[in-house]
Specification:
alpha+beta; Elongation Factor Tu (Ef-tu), domain 3; OB fold (Dihydrolipoamide Acetyltransferase, E2P); four-stranded antiparallel β-sheet; 12 strands
């Protein structure tokens, strides 16, 4: 059976096919020059907060998820044992200062006697040794007092930087151990996105290129960013168990490379949170 197709229909279908080809070509060119990934996460600098002395928590001055300023008091450790240590160090220093003065006077008297021959040189050397020992002990006691005062000052734990407190569970009476992380402070003045792009997308990505960022928590708001750096190694290279392709069956898997994107001028109405998922699209046609 012969099917006749009119010339107008052929032209129409040809035009439609042409439009699809043109649109497809434009779309392919756009996506190749505007690589995008949903494998992206907001990051921020975090500070691990730890006490520098061991002891029970005395007072709490903040709560979890509170914003704190640099230098703001966070909590205190019971200062009484450290105050006693300072008093003991002061007493020991006073006693040693008296002993040093006595050793100095004894040394002067002995040196005079050695010069006029009433004391032997060996006695003079022994007296000088006693003076040197007293001087060394005096320096040690001064250092001990400085350390005791420093430890007492460390019973007041303050914020090393401005930011939001997280994972704060301290309560009065908790015993803290020196240099053991207690909670974290997430800084709020510098956010960036770690976006993992396929290796087939990395060719055109360069530092300085503009980026559109959409967070899953704010799907109707677009953040702007700029490419800061492209990693020189794939993410799998730093994994706990990197792939071993030297043996067994091998399947080619497209690798991903982390790209650091700085978020520029974030809108305070849309609070950024570390760990939030994002979609990042880079304009590789931009010329700086």
């Amino acid at each position: 059976m012969n099917i006749k197709i009119s010339k107008n229909k052929l032209i129409t279908w040809g035009a439609i096919a042409f439009v699809f080809v043109v649109v497809g070509t434009i779309a392919m060119r756009y996506f190749s020059h505007h690589p995008s990934t949903e494998d992206a996460y907001v990051q921020a600098n975090t500070i691990n907060v730890a006490a520098q002395v061991t002891g029970p928590v005395d007072t709490i001055a903040v709560k979890d998820h509170e914003f704190v300023q640099q230098g703001q008091l966070l909590f205190t450790i019971d200062p009484r044992p450290f105050e006693i240590a300072v008093e003991k160090a002061i007493a020991a220093l006073d006693a040693q200062q008296a002993a040093y003065v006595l050793a100095q006077n004894n040394a002067r008297r002995t040196i005079k006697l050695v010069k006029i021959g009433e004391e032997s040189k060996a006695t003079g050397d022994q007296t000088q040794s006693q003076l040197d020992t007293a001087k060394a002990q005096l320096a040690a006691d001064e250092a001990q007092l400085d350390q005791a005062k420093l430890d007492l000052g460390h019973t007041r734990v303050t914020a090393p930087s401005a930011g939001v407190i997280t994972q704060f569970t301290l309560r009065p009476g908790n015993n803290v151990i020196a240099n053991q992380t207690l909670f974290m402070i997430v800084e709020q003045n510098n956010f960036w996105v770690d976006a993992n792009f396929k290796e087939t997308q990395v060719e055109r990505i360069k530092p300085g290129q503009p980026v559109k960022i959409i967070l899953d928590m704010y799907p109707h708001h677009t953040f702007t960013g700029i490419v800061d750096a492209v990693s020189s190694a794939s993410g799998s290279l730093f994994s706990l168990l990197p792939p071993e392709n030297a043996s067994g069956n091998w399947v080619k898997v497209t690798q991903r490379f982390p790209v650091k994107i700085i978020i520029k001028n974030p809108d305070p109405a849309y609070q950024l949170r570390a760990g939030a998922t994002a979609t990042a699209t880079i304009d590789t046609t931009y010329k700086s």
